[in-house]
């Protein structure tokens, strides 16, 4: 019998995402963006949806927001390879509009499979949309840095890195939230 490893299982999910036609977003995508990082990561970060650059490269957070995300991780002694980064919605919404509830609902099965394979100790949701999709609550300025439990997983909402690009005053809070996330036992 062929043994499937964790990486094989995650790669299987990734293949399904790349060829997915379950919602209309597949028509305009260039590449589906499954996510990447350490399959055994302690920390899983979940963004909203791929943007233009992510859509072209098939990789999450490779644009300017991703550069800030890398800086926030470096600040707590982590590299991108040591965490797992994905999005709620795996294909880019046209013109970077917000993902629709139906799209997030349709894509949820992929995210659930990824979470249950990686079994992270802690999940950071990046921004309001990801937070709403994962813990069902909105209002990131109230929720950021706090701990929630969702189906046995600890979740800490974080500001979306793009928010720090528009409003550099948020960056101090973003650093503190990232510290709270990594120091969670
Ligand atoms: N914003 C997101 O939410 N996800 C990405 O992958 C890139 C930008």
Q: Poorly predicted ranges (pLDDT <50, ≥5 residues)?
A: none
**Through-space gap between termini:** 37 Å
Averaged pLDDT: 96
What would you call the shape?
A: globular
| Share of residues in strands | 5-15%
Number of domains: 1
Rounded radius of gyration (Å): 15 Å
Q: What's the name of the CATH homologous superfamily?
A: Uracil-DNA glycosylase-like domain
CATH class: Alpha Beta
Number of helices: 9
Give a quick account of the main beta sheet: strands, pairing sense, barrel closure.
6 strands, mixed
Q: Which architecture name does CATH use?
A: 3-Layer(aba) Sandwich
Structural class: alpha/beta
Percentage of helical residues?
A: 40-55%
Spatial order of the strands forming the largest sheet: 1-3-2-4-6-5
The small-molecule ligands in this entry are: uracil
Query: What is the ordering of alpha helices and beta strands?
Result: HHEEHHEHEHHEEHH
CATH overall fold name: Uracil-DNA Glycosylase, subunit E
Count every beta strand, where a strand is a DSSP E run of 2 or more residues. Answer: 6
Task: Describe the fold and architecture.
The chain is of the alpha/beta class and 185 residues long. It has a single domain (6-182), classed as Uracil-DNA Glycosylase, subunit E. It has nine helices and six strands. It has helices at residues 6-18, 25-28, 52-57, 64-75, 101-118, 128-135, 140-143, 161-166, 171-183, and strands at residues 36-37, 43-47, 84-87, 122-126, 148-150, 153-158. Helix 1 (6-18) packs antiparallel against helix 5. The model has no long low-confidence stretch (mean pLDDT 96). Uracil binds at residues 47-51, 54, 60-61, 63, 65, 87.
């Amino acid at each position: 019998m062929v043994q499937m490893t964790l990486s094989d299982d995650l790669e299987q999910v990734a293949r399904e995402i790349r060829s997915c036609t379950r919602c209309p977003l597949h028509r305009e995508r260039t590449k589906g963006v499954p996510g990447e990082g350490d399959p055994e990561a302690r920390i899983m970060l979940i963004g909203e949806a791929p943007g233009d650059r992510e859509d072209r490269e098939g990789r999450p957070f490779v644009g300017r927001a991703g550069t800030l995300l890398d800086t926030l991780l470096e600040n707590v002694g982590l590299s991108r390879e040591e965490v797992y980064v994905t999005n709620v919605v795996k294909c880019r919404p046209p013109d970077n509009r917000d993902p629709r509830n139906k799209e997030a609902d349709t894509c949820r099965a992929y995210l659930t499979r990824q979470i249950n394979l990686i079994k992270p100790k802690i999940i950071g949701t990046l921004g309001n949309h990801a937070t709403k999709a994962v813990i069902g609550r909105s209002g990131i300025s109230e929720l950021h840095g706090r701990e929630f439990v969702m189906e046995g997983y600890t979740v800490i909402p974080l500001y979306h890195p793009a928010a720090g690009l528009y409003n550099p005053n948020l960056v101090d809070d973003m650093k503190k939230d990232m510290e709270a996330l990594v120091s969670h036992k």
